[in-house]
Every structure is written in structure tokens, then in C-alpha cells.
Amino acid sequence: MSESTYTVTGMTCEHCVASVTEEISEIDGVNAVAVDLPTGAVTVTSTLPVAEARIRAAVEEAGYQLAG
Amino acid sequence: MSESTYTVTGMTCEHCVASVTEEISEIDGVNAVAVDLPTGAVTVTSTLPVAEARIRAAVEEAGYQLAG
How many domains is chain B built from? Predict the structure, then answer.
């Protein structure tokens, strides 16, 4: 099991959290997504490590940005 | 045709706008809902005047508050 934490900018409400969670959850191998709205911290748990580029693409698909 | 403008508090993003628009649009007789996110101004156009209580209920159903 692999766990990585990213920072997502632009989320302002629980609808935003739901959108980001939904897009990241669709990535193959992702088991869980936990979002802390105040900090933008997004923790992704997956069976195998997921390339950051895939996380970034999912976040952008939801309409937000990965920090850094 | 009747047009009234209300102020809704708590909307932070376009998802919030969509939720409020959807709930108010479901009220009988409502033809159009226009939301200005920065100010929270919500303009409702309807065939007949709509009781403020119905607007308030729809806004609260969406998870927001009518100011005043």
C-alpha cells in the first residue's frame, strides 16, 4: 500500500472537495482519497505508487491546481 | 413577469452557484435564476411573484442562507 500527500489550491467548499475526490478516485489503483479543505492537503492511498502527473491531471480535470 | 433580487450568503464557488440555481429553478413558475457570486446577489424571474419563504427554503435546501 502506498500513501502520498499533495497540496491542492483553489478548493473553497465541500463541492470542490467532492470534485477533487471523485477525479482522483477514478485513477486505477487508488483506494482512498482524504481531503483537508482548510489546508488543501490531499492524501491518496493506493495499491501501488501513482505518478504525480496522473494526480496532477486528475486535479486539473476537476478544475483545481496542484501546488508546487 | 416578476423579478426579485435576494442576497445569499455562503456561496464560495461555481459549484455553490449551481446548487442554489438548481434549487430555486425547481420552484413552480420560476423562469430564470441569475447569480452574481462575488456579491451573492440572486435574481429570480418568474411568471408570478414567488413568496420569499419559498426562496428561503430553496436556498437553505442547497445549504446556504438568505441574508436579512
Answer: 1
- Does the beta-carbon distance from A16 to B19 stay under 8 Å? no
Interface residues on B facing A, Cβ-Cβ cutoff 8 A: 12-13, 15-16, 19
pTM for the model stands at 0.85
Q: What is the ipTM of this complex?
A: 0.74
- Cβ–Cβ under 8 Å, residues A1 and A48: no
Q: A–B: how many Cβ contacts below 8 A?
A: 13
* Identity of the amino acid at B46: S
pLDDT of chain A, 68 residues: tens digit per residue: 999 999 999 999 999 999 999 999 999 999 999 999 999 999 999 999 999 999 999 999 999 999 97
Phi (first) and psi of residue B9, to 5 degrees: -105, 150
CATH number at residue B56: 3.30.70.100
Residue B18 belongs to domain spanning? 2-66
